[in-house]
Target: Proline iminopeptidase
Amino acid sequence: MKNTNFFLIVIIVLLTSCTQKQKSNDESASKSRYFDYSNSEDQLTGGIKMIAINTPKGTFNVWTKRVGNNPKMRVLLLHGGPGGTHEAFAAFDGYLPNEEIEYIYYDQLDSYYSDKPNDSTLWTTERFVEEVEQVRKALNLTKDNFYLLGHSWGGILAMEYALKYQDNLKGLIISNMMMSAPEYGKYANEVLGPKLKPEILKEIKDLEAQHDFNNPRYSELLMNHYYTEHILRMPLEKWPEPINRMFKHLNPNIYVYMQGHSEFGMTGNATLKNWDVTIRLKTIKTPTLVIAGTHDTMDPKHMEWVANEVQNGRLLLCPNGSHCAFYDDPNTYFNGLITFIKDVNTGGFK
Model:
């Protein structure tokens, strides 16, 4: 009788052990490895990697941070400015991880978290394109998984990269950026400007004519009457903290040199003032998503034209969105972005 009880106990223990082991195996099999950074070179830094960039003026480091793991869908984010930071993209944390899409934050050279040589000879689209290519190689991004998303100035950079290196891309996303700086300026002055109250527009133009861009009144007018309508459609006191942090960290030197003093068109001797690649868009065969906002500083009709001009384009129009549509029309923005990435990944993009 004692032996019988003993064997029963042994059998129960073995069955329990097998059940627990099977349960453990099932949980392990179903558990996502999206946030598993173990045994990776960036494990101790939480995905942060400083990348050495070779330039005509020496070697400098740029800051990147990987979020998640997905060998098939990896998105490199190019921030705006020039001289802005990756911080503006914080909203992506609320949407892409749930879809297990890997994305990489990146501060371009002379932006806040990267080295700042402060050498204007390095502030050219050609040099920045080569920087992106070096980042791509360092992160092992390939044509089988590499999506490039550029917002605002980042959209200029993304398109310039694609025009030279599109064979490295799986997908291209141009977010809130026209492909002609002169057309952008024309839209600002002929369409958006007249929507302002006449006295406000006159005061802005008078200050610009006097080159009085450092006058606090100039910023006040733009922020309260233009930016809250066309940059981010929220009262200033409700602007998301990451956007305010990005503006706090913005590098004004490179911004003014390349873009000018405001988002009300490109002003003065800004080096991007005459940038225009419209006649080259037909050469882009990479699947391309063009994101526009109805209330953007960028003409949505032009953006629609861009989507039709490239060989494999799709337009995503955010009806409530402005220049930062990922904050003022986030559901439209991210649903469209995620759908595009997954469509390209599965071969369902048309």
In short: The two ends are 74 Å apart (CA to CA). Residues 2-30 form the longest helix (29 residues). The longest strand covers residues 58-67.
